[in-house]
Amino acid sequence: DLYGDRVKKWFTFNEPIVPVEGGYLYNFHYPDINDAKRGFQYFFNTILANAKTIKLFKEQDYNGEIGIVLNLTPSYPRSENEEDKKAALIADLFFNKSFLDPATKGTFPEQLVEMIKAQDLMPFYKSEDLEIIKHNTVDLLGVNYYLPRRVKAKENIHNPNSPFTPEFYFDNYEMPGRKMNPYRGWEIYPEGIYDIMKNLQNNYGNITSFISENGMGVENEARFIENNQIQDDYRIEFLKDHLYWLNKAIKEGANCKGYHMWTFMDNWSWMNAYKNRYGFISVDINTQARTIKKSGYWFKKLSEENMFEL
Predict the structure, then answer these.
(1) Which of 103, 113, 125, 107 is nearest to 53 (CA)?
(2) Are 99 and 16 in contact (CB under 8 A)?
(3) 267: which of 17, 63, 84, 119 is 20 to 30 A away, CA to CA?
(4) What is the pLDDT at residue 11?
């Protein structure tokens, strides 16, 4: 009961892009196979399974809405140069529109399809599969946002004998002076959450959405303990900045219904076990003792008063 009312909210697949990226393109997730063709087959099968689940949901006449949770990572060009902007559009096709368009509009981006055909990576499908996808789109959208993607036009021609990755069409770019979370190796860019919501508002029918994941992982937080409490002011600053930009989008009409922190308490992560800590509540993995961090009390006060000082 997501919003506290009597209409149930249901969700299908969470983060389907992660296995495609990590499992078949970039070697950081199971099954850890460099095989883009298998990856795109997995991608299509996931979209089809999502649509079939929605179809079944509708046929059962449930009293509720159904949605999907996606990682959305805005793509920003290095400059206003046309080639840099083209690179950012292609990155957006692969990492955002690939899942977002069929899930919400029922169609795949034509330009993306043509690029996959050109690389001989098209998945197997039946014509009726496309009809199922077309007529069974989501009612609401969960959005995971952590960091932006910055790209530039390719500086060198790719090696045609290397395994395919989307970087055949662009290069990644490290913006000078960017704000970083050094423990996770990720850029901190709060404005990205605003850009996502405005994109959904302007280009996706202002679909009902909420932030399903957002947060920062920090290693060895015990060094910030004072008076038996972790003084995670860095997390409070992170939250303030992202909530400021989310609130700005909502004030401008974005149909975002809520914000969920990753995560409530420190937890085991697929990528780094317990190395990075994310939660409002610290977990001692030896004793299982739970201790509320400074950010937990701050968020409690925010929830009660619905405001904070910048």
Answers:
(1) 103
(2) yes
(3) 17
(4) 65
